[in-house]
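In this notebook, the sequence line spells out the residues, with the fold written below as integer tokens. This is how one looks.
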Amino acid sequence: MQEYYFLFALALVYTLFATIQDLKYREVANWLSFSFIAFALAYRAFFSIATDNLSFFLFGLFGFLIMFALGNAFYYMKAFAGGDAKLLMGFGIILPYQTYLQLLFLPLLLVLTLFLSGAVYSLFYSIFIVLKNKKQFTREFNKLSRNWKFTLTISTILVPVFVLLGFYQYLFFPLAILALLHLTFIYTKSLEKCMLILTPPESLTEGDWLEKEIKLNSKITIQKSVHGLSFQDIQLLRKYHKSALIKQGIPFVPAFLITLIITALFFSALLPLPSLFSFLP
């Protein structure tokens, strides 16, 4: 299992640099993601040749293919940006597979950990955005809340009636869940308004997500795309001096860093081996 220490160390270094890039520039350079994937696969290939153990390379290759499928699915569902998807592919290579059954189990465990840690991280990050855009968030939240005043009034009247009739034990949890979903919906929609930025053409980057299409003239219209703005789109916007309303997402790479640390600690505690962080001074 010591052969995996290097892979985890490699992933930690690359993910740390990717996190800095994502927080600073809201994107992860392709060279960083692709070199991570290439370096990890190359290490597995050389180690397999040196030890005459083909399965070590095949485990990494199959792990990459599984995460390639998942990463693309999340990308086209707009759950991930391109950099997130490529980083997930790299993570598929470094996991410590010992059996082919683990090829199914470990990627799913990693993705579950990623989304759980990502949910906690995103919640705290969204609170930061709300505090930074307090007036805009409050205005949008109040606007959306007004549409539900009638429902809230009816609920306020009906709840005491159901309590008196003895039905409260059956309605408490459904109503609580409904109220929570309602508040989450309003919070999310209000947060989205805070993340819409009118960006001048000089500041646009490839992959930026348009909130709405931009009509440059009677013949040329830049459409919204799952891939975001292309290089050609940006050149046209600069040519016509058009700003774009961009929907900024929460930089998600820090969640990968958190997930990697959790995963390393998990395997370090699970295995009767030195810590996976033993490469650190």
About this structure: Strands lie at 196-199, 214-215, 221-222, 244-247.
